[in-house]
Design a protein that fits this description.
This protein is mostly helical. Helix content is 71%, strand content 0%. It is rod-shaped.
Length: 102
């Protein structure tokens, strides 16, 4: 059984900015940033990670810091896949050649 799909509609920029401000008010003096985001997210009907991403973006921190690392992994896996495909073709050809000689 899969988790229910969540679909959030667009949110007004004023609400977004108010949510960011509220998270900043609550953290770190009253609670952690995550706890603050959870409380605010519950109030506005969004997932707390969304609110955390808004705050991070407002602070100039990009959530895509790992993109170059992931791109490097993807390139490595593409090379491995190409090698595996070439080996598979060679093996298939060898089997075909062997069956033709028999």
């Amino acid at each position: 059984m899969s988790a229910p799909e969540r679909r959030y509609g667009p949110i007004d920029e004023r609400i977004r900015h108010a949510a960011i401000a509220r998270v900043r008010e609550l953290s770190p003096s009253q609670m952690s940033r995550t706890a603050a985001a959870k409380r605010v997210a519950e109030d506005i009907g969004r997932h707390f990670n969304t609110v955390l991403l808004w705050v991070a973006a407002e602070d100039g921190r990009s959530p895509s810091r790992s993109v170059p690392r992931l791109e490097a992994v993807v390139e490595h896996l593409k090379r491995e896949l190409a090698c595996s495909q070439a080996l598979n073709q060679e093996l298939a050809q060898a089997l075909t050649d062997q069956a033709g000689r028999a």
